[in-house]
Amino acid sequence: MSVRQGIIGGVVIELRDRDEIEALEAAGSVAAAVLRAVGEHAVTGVSLAELDEVAREVADRAGARPLGDQVISTSLNDEITGGPPDSRVPEDGDLLSVAVTLHLEGWCTRAATSLVLGTARPQDQALIDATRQALADGIAAAQPGARLGAVCRAIGLVGRSAGYGIPPLGGHGLGRQPRQEPAVPNDGHPGRGIPLRPGLVLSIEPIFTAGGRDHLERDNPIVRTGDESRAAHVGHTLVITDHGPRVLTAS
Length: 251
Fold this sequence. Notes:
Helices cover about 30% and strands about 30% of the residues. It has 4 helices and 16 strands. α1 runs antiparallel to α2 and α3 (about 120-140) packs antiparallel against α4. The longest helix is centred in the N-terminal third of the chain and has 24 residues, at about 20-40. The mean pLDDT is about 95.
């Protein structure tokens, strides 16, 4: 076991040093640039596949690699998590969620955003605003010495207070691999979970559904709400430092 690993709460967790965090932040800046470019081009009349091409141009210029053939994954309306971007062309008022996971120089970061194309229904904007608030609250709770459950509860409190459903999905650790321990659920108890130590890298990913159900339905590779209500998904990669959380995928 290297000096940058530790068994925390019975789980082997990798802790990153300063040089590794800087490398992760470089990867995170590309993920942020991808989402920013996709958001600028996401208008009615532009297909999901075309948005992936926009994302590819940004990633290629930075030398970053996607996990698979597509750079982004996309979800529309009642899709909680989507699959590869296809030829579908979103219409005015559609709720689009976009997630990206990138490798750069051997390091992985992940981020996600939701937006409405054209004119937003008030209830859709409220759903997106709630996920963004939950993300901000989850990040604020990610303090050294706190437990992971405090992050999960901060997210869940926003969703539950608004009456939204919280499906059994969420964030996780990242580093050399795109998915590592620990899992970061979107609800929990503040006194539970592993203690947050400096060097721990996590993605925090609030996902709420407007219908209020925690249930989800799998329609591979897409996961749906099951009641035709809409879903929103936002996320950042961050690292715990001695002074608090540091977002690595900030735009």
